[in-house]
What does this fold into?
Amino acid sequence: MLSFLGRRVLWSVAVLLLASLLTFFVGYKVPADPARMIAGPNASVDTVAGIRRQLGLDQPFAVQYGRYLGQALRGNLGRSYKTEQQVLPTILERFPYTAALALSGLAFEVLIGASVGLLAAATRLRAVDALASTFVLLTLAVPSFWLGIILLYVFGYLYPVFPLGGAEGGPISLFLPALTLGLSGAGYYARVGRASLLEVLGEDFIRTARAKGVSPGRVMLRHALKNALRPLITMTALDLGVLLGGALITEQVFGWPGIGTLAWQAVQNIDLPMIMGTVLFSALCIVVANVLVDLVYRWVDPRITA
Amino acid sequence: MSVAVPSRPSLSSPFASFALWRRFRRQPGSVLGLVITAALLLICLLAPWLSGHDPVTQYPDGLSELGAPLPPGQGFIFGTDALGRDLCARLLFGTRTSLTIALLSNLIATAVALVLGTLAGYFGGLLDTLIMRLTDVLISFPVLLLAAFLAAVLRPGIGVIIGVIGGVSWFYLARVIRAELLSVRRREYIEAARALGASDARIIFRHALPQILGLVTVYSTLNFSTTVLFVAALSYVGIGVQPPTPDWGNMIADGTQYLTVSPWLVIFPGVFLGLSVLAFNLLGDGLQSALDPKSGRKVD
It folds into this structure.
């Protein structure tokens, strides 16, 4: 178990290193000159050269990357080229917004998706199944940003129940972005939930339970659902990792001040330290979620071995 | 292929393709998907003749007296946008742009996945480890952010978008291909071919790849719908297709500014986008159950 954990963590660190190397390399190759962007269009050539020296941009790639890595390991991700704010504190400042959106979006996703899928499998009614299939096909087809805009139009403008974006309105302004995230991901949960429950219902132990006279409701709740939920829990954990890194598009549509918006602004300004920071933060969330899922799996089901 | 015992009907024999069509046809959804796909294909081919208007011309009679976009009807079937351009023409030409970019990026992704997946699955060993670790890294990557970064850095252009999207959407398919080849390469007829002295290249191209052709078709079709959404998302945030060239994503972004006065500017491109994703998903699911009836995975 411990050696597994050690290997898993080691590999995650390698993944993060590779991700940082890749992003840094793209940034290094940028045709735009960050020193010129900081100095402004009217600055003299000398000023620009000075800034370049000061930031170490005149150094070779290996030196620059080595220095970045050394500082990053000490918790210093540098300063934004654009706003001159420290990168890590800025990301942490935005994190509560992204976390709130991630958790509430995930709640919608799981509640809507899983209940549709499990209901379709549990009732075995043709009509319910057809409705569930339609729901899955629609949620998979409708682009999330379009759904967000339409929801804003209907519930923010036509029937002004919710604020028109931003986070100033308090918890209520979280509703529409969370619903958008939730609906656009719910199809996958419905699909997996349905397939998983159907599979479990075909297992021998379900037949045994029925044969020994357990009531249908109890079979469903105690025997079937408990086992069918496992893949859904895995999906939830992995999705949480992805969402905690920032919902790039949804945050954009709703003007939500999370990490996704921060990353997006950084990309537009070619603000390399901020881009590096947000990419690494997102990758870290995904990697940690993956390791945790693997660990929990082993803990729950000791039959799994490396 | 005299020793071959195909687990799935091969796509090459005419008899098999008839059986395939019969199984495909059994699901109304698949046929609907095929019909919509055919309609979209026709739109792509015939856009200039179907539209009647030019997609980038700003028509003087395309705006109301107050300078607002015209609602659907009144000489412009789907209305006009804020610059007085015909929305119908932009939608038809936008279909062409969006689907061409998605198709080409999907082809790139499929080609990369085929090469890397085959190398990893057939040869195994160190090569397999390296390629699978690479997919691990890419899966942990915020892909949309990476694509946005690349597209922003390389300055927006259609070639760049195709390359970027193709370059970041191959790894899932590569894993599927690898897993399938791992099992295919242990089958008897592969052993037999090797015993008869066939080279690796011959075994791969004549015996192994034909077996996974159906699988690749299914996943590539399903991936196509993801790619379509990807293109639209990039264009929506402004780093995909650049105006005035119409594309579903940038049309939705444009229309958002006028959402309260002319919601049709957002609704129509979204419907086109959604319908095409729906069609490719239906098509992929239909192909899957037609090619692999034993899988028992119904379209859901």
Q: What stands out?
A: The mean pLDDT of chain A is 87. Chain A touches chain B through 54 residues (CB under 8 Å). The first helix of chain A runs from residue 2 to 28.
